[in-house]
Design a protein that fits this description.
Layout: E1 7-12, E2 15-17, H1 28-39, E3 43-48, E4 73-75, E5 90-92, H2 96-105, E6 111-114, H3 122-135, E7 141-143, H4 146-150, H5 152-158, E8 163-164, H6 173-181, E9 211-213, E10 216-217, H7 228-231, E11 236-237, H8 240-254, E12 258-261, H9 274-284, E13 289-291, H10 303-312, E14 314-322, H11 338-351, E15 358-364, H12 371-383, E16 387-392, H13 402-408, H14 434-445
Parallel strand pairs: 1-3, 1-6, 6-7, 7-8, 9-12, 12-13, 13-14, 14-15, 15-16
Antiparallel strand pairs: 2-5, 4-5, 10-11
């Protein structure tokens, strides 16, 4: 017999990787589902395997900057096939014992929802689900998220979840919960209207040091290395005023000062969306800081948007440059020209942004990419008095560049997502080289 008010457990899994750090990263989708479920009468428990503030940790938070900080890590064996990589491999997040104890302290759930991020992080998902099964062997576990969508068949076969869902969870969550718990409710929101969604349940975290924001979903561009179109085929944009109200809510109620925009296209059609949002933030008088770890489109930065970004309190501006090899740009995307890059940088500096606040992402490790091309890009960015930030390329299924990545890799990318890890430079002919990485990092930091 089902409970009148079912209990649903939502879990953010461990990361297994060579390196990981909390760069304003939170499971936004999972916490949105938690909020939707709670607003529809379900009892919710949230456990975060990446919790930097777990009470059993030796110190609450060893280091933070604008809310960021390192995860606890435990060295573990490298996955099969990566034994030759001369780097330590770790489980990032709370200790396994702590997770078991946390599970034993909660009421037995009627359903468990687990999210997933990077495709090559799936071993952490596997381990998380394995522990949940130990404690609650007869409770259904449903997996969603990026790995579940991009590598659906692999997730079905290897994650350990009883059911794997791909695509937007908001459209299916209430039916899914009803199917597993027998508790049926009528939707109080429109999945296709972001302004009707409740705010993500960030308050379920032990401590809120920053808030990741989404003002839109989807992207009008079709970059060959990006899976945005596959993950979010429909472009949806929030009302600018609703974004301002959410920022005010978290700042006034929870004293949050740092907000990170995770849009794929924050400044696109700026006159209709970003400009009124930025003007609303300025008018509100909020003393907060904004960051753009997902990068902004360079072409959309004008003198007006740069000025408004500066006045609104943007502190970490990241530009999606990717390369300065503009003569072969169409092989990757059609986002920016050399002139547009220079114009954007000049606009940001005229608005008041100092060099240390502006960074330009440069993709490294692309199929067929030569070291000299990366070196030239670094030099061009530095000549423009902007900080070059190296972003290692990860091959992603369902992208236009995937087939080239598969053919150029020294690994069998299609056999196992573990080989798409950007830390191992999977699309380079030569094996992993600290010497090459150090050379490029030194050139970038100069």
């Amino acid at each position: 017999m089902k409970h009148d008010t079912p209990h649903i457990l939502l879990v953010n899994p461990w990361i297994h990787d060579f390196a990981a750090y909390d760069f304003w990263a939170k499971p936004l989708g999972l916490l949105t589902l938690a909020s939707i479920l709670r607003h529809h009468g379900f009892n919710i428990t949230y456990l975060d395997c990446l919790d930097r503030f777990h009470p059993k940790a030796s110190q609450a938070d060893p280091y933070t900057r604008h809310g960021r900080g390192p995860y606890l890590k435990t060295k573990i064996p490298k996955p099969g096939g990566l034994e030759d990589i001369p780097r330590n491999f770790s489980r990032y997040g709370i200790k396994k014992k702590w997770f078991r104890e946390d599970l034993l302290c909660i009421k037995k759930p009627d359903l468990v929802l687990v999210t997933s991020m990077m495709t090559y992080w799936y071993p952490g998902v596997q381990e998380t689900i394995g522990v949940i099964k130990e404690i609650f062997p007869d409770v259904a576990i449903v997996l969603g998220g990026i790995y579940a969508s991009l590598c659906h068949e692999h997730a079905q076969n290897y994650s350990g979840a009883h059911h794997v869902v791909k695509g937007s969870g908001e459209k299916h969550i209430l039916k899914l919960a009803s199917d597993y718990t027998g508790f049926s409710v009528k939707a109080k929101f429109n999945p296709d209207d972001l302004d009707t969604h409740p705010y993500p349940a960030f308050e379920l975290q032990r401590k809120i040091t920053y808030i990741p924001l989404l003002t839109s979903r989807g992207c009008p561009f079709a970059c060959k290395y990006c899976a945005s179109h596959f993950l979010n085929p429909k472009r949806m944009v929030r009302n600018p005023e609703s974004v301002v109200q959410e920022i005010k809510y978290w700042h006034e109620k929870y004293k949050v000062k740092d907000f990170a925009f995770y849009d794929d296209a924050l400044l696109v059609n700026a006159g209709k969306y970003a400009v009124p949002m930025l003007e609303g933030i300025i008018k509100s008088g909020l003393k907060v800081r904004f960051h753009t770890p997902n990068a902004v489109h360079i072409r959309e930065i004008s003198k007006q948007t740069a000025r408004l970004m500066f006045q609104a309190g943007f502190k970490t501006v990241r530009l999606g440059l990717e390369t300065t090899a503009f003569n072969i740009r169409n092989e990757l995307d059609v986002k920016v020209t050399a002139a547009e890059f220079e114009k954007a940088v000049n606009s940001l500096k005229e608005a008041g942004f100092k060099k240390e606040l502006i960074g330009a992402y440069l993709l490294t490790g692309l199929p067929g990419q030569e070291i000299k091309s990366i070196e030239d890009s670094i030099k061009t960015v530095r000549q423009n008095q902007v900080i070059p930030i190296l972003a290692h390329y990860s091959p992603i299924p369902h992208t236009a560049l995937w087939s080239r990545a598969v053919s150029s890799s020294r690994y069998d990318l299609e056999s196992d997502p573990i080989f798409t890890n950007n830390a191992i430079f999977p699309c380079q002919d030569e094996r992993f080289s600290w010497q090459t990485i150090s050379h490029l990092n030194n050139l970038a930091t100069g």
